[in-house]
């Protein structure tokens, strides 16, 4: 889904404009308090997103990858303002939206749409899919009566559904058809940005390809920008221009698809790539899991949050290939991704490196 076309950008000589820009965004969830917390006044939080910078430019597709629980969905929901951020700044088309509420927030919701993994969760089972797709047109006061239904019917045809399916109920449609309805519902308000949360993970490989091709065509046709959340690196490689790799609420590496897939710098990115299942004859081989467990989102490790599982972290330091963080913004940039190396000796000593036995398990599972 590459786009080098800058003709829609007012500053056609420069890079496409920044549509969405998140800076140091955090989303922490309070943990249910137990008796101890109530008595001693200590409350813990889940640091689902913990200081993330992210930019999506007009016309591009940015992917967010990472294991389950790394914070991808929470990040997507926070930057699209389904969630209120705990901290940080979010601008959309130059306007600060991090504290928007009421009418201002509704206006942003019209321009930023979220497509859920399971379209059933966003479709009312008691309403026809046509009614569900038409609803945002009423909510946002965009169209009514015949004009509303014409618009919905046109969109159904655009995504390969028949007009006859307007009257179907969600349970009467296949998974692929429901995902197409989900796309219609997202596109009906003519958004600028669509956030896809695992858009094809519930579909088989053939259907995945059809939906991804459709998403690609719609992007060009409607001049859309996409943020695509997926644990599936095959999907991300296929459709994204740039990729951010998330681990334990942070982005550990980012770059173009070529940077990430051909020259990954961070050991976590390398481990993720080694765990990609291969597709042969339309069938996927089983996914290998990374060694070790993701850390607690309540008390994440200090320094590089990956270091307790990192095959390159041995005896308090990285074993050679020092990773660098690649900047999305194109300054080839160079903050050390392994923040652990920036820590003082005392801080490192306070943290127990993985035992020899743990290292062997990690190395075995990463194929080193
Ligand atoms: N509403 C919530 N309340 C408390 N904790 C939450 C909430 N939503 C998410 N979390 C926690 O935040 C962390 C990140 O979750 P999130 O769903 O964003 O990760 P993810 O990478 O999208 O994972 P998955 O692919 O499994 O959806 C997890 O530890 C999760 O349990």
Automatic annotation (TrEMBL):
Q: Where is the composition biased (Low complexity)?
A: 280-293
- Specify the superkingdom: Archaea
The family database entries (InterPro entries) matched by this protein are listed as: AAA+_ATPase, ABC_transp_ATP-bind, ABC_transporter-like_ATP-bd, ABC_transporter-like_CS, Oligopep_ABC_C, P-loop_NTPase
* GO BP: peptide transport; transmembrane transport
The answer to keyword ATP-binding applying to this record is yes
Q: Which residues cross the membrane?
A: none
Question: Which GO molecular function annotations are given, in alphabetical order?
Answer: ATP binding; ATP hydrolysis activity
Question: Region annotation Disordered: residue ranges?
Answer: 280-306, 341-368
Any Pfam family:
ABC_tran
Q: Which UniProt keywords apply?
A: ATP-binding, Nucleotide-binding, Transport
Residues of the ABC transporter domain: 20-273
Q: Where is the composition biased (Basic and acidic residues)?
A: 341-362
Q: Please give the name of this protein.
A: ABC transporter ATP-binding protein
